[in-house]
Amino acid sequence: MTEEKTILWTRQDERSLLDLEKYGVFRNKKEYIEANYGDISYHFISLYRWFTNEASKRVPTPEKVEFPIWCSISEDSMLRPTEGNVCYKIEIPKKDIIYFDGAKWDHVLNHIYIPKDDADQEEYVKELKSKGFKDQFNFIEGKTSHFYPLEKKRVMDSWQRIFEIERWNIFIVQANIWEIRPEQIKEVFKYEG
């Protein structure tokens, strides 16, 4: 029986080509995240650690993997190469892919609650107002976040919903993998300038 595979696309630091050549594998590194996000990389690194922990419950993390590799599920929605980056078209076993809702990921990036639906969002906002909260943005980080451990837990527990995909849309659904090996690469797109 042949292993079922699918095509994904991912944009990565051009140093990933050297990793593939030298080690026979590419794994996302903290230094690549720092180079990509600069002064705000700490924000992404902490959330990528959360994602890695949760995603590894769905697809086990191989040894030496620290961070996930973000992928697009369609060539139409793929990030194009930019200066200092390359894009890979890769063929990955379906069992190694973690799909998630990119629109819900935006809630995680903003440290806010992911509602089950519109009614849940409405109820959540109403409840926050009844408790005297002005907004929903200060439970995870900030000078007063430590005062609200129950609200923080509620928000972070809701983040599991990123793995619940209601609509399969190439611009919303994203994929995550743990590593790329040379034999999985079908094409490399380089920045043309």
CATH class of the largest domain: Alpha Beta
Helix content: 25-40%
Question: Structural class, judged by helices and strands?
Answer: alpha+beta
Percent of residues in β-strands: 15-25%
Mean pLDDT level: 93
State the main characteristics.
6 helices; 193 residues; 6 strands; 2 domains; globular; three-stranded antiparallel β-sheet; ADP-ribosylation fold; 32% helix; alpha+beta
Task: Give a concise summary.
The protein is an alpha+beta fold.
Helices, strands, pairings?
Elements: E1 5-13, H1 16-23, H2 30-37, H3 41-55, E2 69-72, E3 85-93, E4 98-101, H4 102-109, H5 118-130, H6 149-158, E5 173-177, E6 185-190
Antiparallel strand pairs: 1-3, 2-5, 3-6, 4-5
Describe this structure in words.
The strands form two sheets. Strands 1-3-6 form a three-stranded antiparallel β-sheet, with no helix packed on it. Strands 2-5-4 form a three-stranded antiparallel β-sheet. The protein has 193 residues and is of the alpha+beta class. It contains six helices and six strands. The mean pLDDT is 93. The radius of gyration is 18 Å and the shape is globular. The protein folds into two domains: 5-103 and 168-190, ADP-ribosylation fold; 110-161, no CATH class.
